[in-house]
Amino acid sequence: MDLGSLSEPETESTVRSDLADAFHRLNFGTGNGNSSSGQHLPDAAVRSIATYLLQGEPPGHALVHLLAFCGVCRQWRSVAHEVNPGICIGFDVLENTFCSMSSIQRFRRLNLMQKEVLFHAAAQLLSGYTEVSFAGEAVSDRLVQAVAERVGAKLVKVKLSNAKKVTDTSLCALVRSAPLLHSFMVEEADRAAGKFLVPLFEGCSELTTAHVANMQSLNWGLCKHSSSTWAHKGLTKLVVRTVGLDDTFGVIISRLNNLIDIELDGPAVNIKAAAVHCPSLSRVSYLVGKKSDLDEALASLMSIKELKHLELIVRNFVLTADELRVIGMLPVADLRLDSYVYKQQPTLSRSSYSHVDNEGVKALVDGICTRWCSHNADMCPMKLSLCGATALTHDSVSALLRLPVLTELDIGGCCRITAMDKMRLVAKVKAGREMLESGRRPQVRMNSRFPGLMMM
């Protein structure tokens, strides 16, 4: 039976019977799908084999393995179609991890139409799984709706990326069918206008993580309008980046009082809204593209009492020494100052792309040391990232070595730092970790003649 000839089944038993033929190209063996060659195996043994088959496999491979397994015989199909909770099933045509199994190789040779038909049939067959991922152009509205009807009531985690054909219709059906949803992630679904956001925030009372990114034409209007009627929300992590945020997005943030972690871009006034309405906020990741936004953001970040982790992704400008000195004064234990260019293409090494220079690093270290001397109780392990700072040289290394405690350092893309200086930084980090493990705390005071120089 050709994959393209699959039609809507009348009953569940018909689905399972037809799929044995539809998946014959993915079969492990050569037996006929209608044979009873596997009947001598106890159901428990078949279930154990199916579970073992999926261990450590990517979600996309897990799906193909299960389909091939179900195609062996009726007994295996009747047992293995029920997937254990916690297993993630991936309707994914972008998964390119190497796999030597013939079923994966045959699946990859199918064209997009055949893969879409195969995915839809699999969505009708498999049940029981609580996590699902969708990726690639073989993902359609028909597939997403089939998953919603089959397992929506049990889903706790959904991830959808690079699905150009998916629209609001199927996304609305999916989130409405999943009242137990804990985590929802959607990226690059260009045909979705944003109508699914309302049922997502209103109907999924168990939602703790919402991730919406790379959908520039997304319309938040309906979501903002309905936010005034929302009940108490348990959402703790929100990622909204490259989704057309404006300066009124704070209306939504104001209803998410339990946020601990937020990643966003756009106007800095939204960070101010988070600082005011989210008292437990401890991590902020902000993609900043304008100096004016950075100044406003720093003022708001200063007022976040629980802030411990800060990531600033800098785009199209260089951080000044004054700005970095202020950043160093922020009471954070994990500070990431990475370049947007490096995030997009780590191999670019031109110094003109650098977002931090040597003087900036010196000012950053001065700010950190000043804070630690002013509030010795805040002395804590320090994690620092300066990825993409291609202009940094020996002077920056000398400044970083002045930090009394440094337990983690990422200098990816800092191509002008010599191998010898890198070894010095490695030794610095190693010493910081040993100090942390031993339970010792550095006793420091500021040298009055040389600001920023710490005396141990």
- Which range does the strand content fall in? 5-15%
Number of strands: 14
| End-to-end C-alpha gap | 77 Å
Q: What's the story with the biggest beta sheet?
A: 12 strands, parallel
Give the mean pLDDT: 85
* Helix content range: 25-40%
> How many alpha or pi helices?
18
Sheet with the most strands: spatial strand order: 1-2-3-4-5-6-7-8-9-10-11-12
Q: Indicate the structural class.
A: alpha/beta
Low-confidence stretches: 1-10, 15-33, 35-39, 448-456
Shape: globular
Q: Tell me the Rg in angstroms.
A: 27 Å
Describe the structure.
The protein has helices at residues 12-22, 43-54, 59-70, 74-80, 102-108, 112-125, 141-151, 168-176, 197-203, 221-226, 250-253, 269-277, 291-301, 321-329, 340-344, 358-374, 394-400, 419-438, and strands at residues 88-92, 131-135, 157-161, 183-187, 209-213, 237-241, 261-264, 283-288, 309-314, 334-339, 383-385, 408-410, 445-446, 454-455. With 456 residues, the protein is α/β, with parallel strands linked by helices. Among the domains are: 1-129, no CATH class; 308-456, no CATH class. Helix 1 (12-22) runs antiparallel to helix 6 (112-125), helix 2 packs across helix 4 and helix 12 (269-277) runs parallel beside helix 13.
What's a quick, concise take on this entry?
With 456 residues, the chain is of the alpha/beta class. It has helices at 12-22, 43-54, 59-70, 74-80, 102-108, 112-125, 141-151, 168-176, 197-203, 221-226, 250-253, 269-277, 291-301, 321-329, 340-344, 358-374, 394-400, 419-438; strands at residues 88-92, 131-135, 157-161, 183-187, 209-213, 237-241, 261-264, 283-288, 309-314, 334-339, 383-385, 408-410, 445-446, 454-455. Among the domains are: 1-129, no CATH class; 308-456, no CATH class.
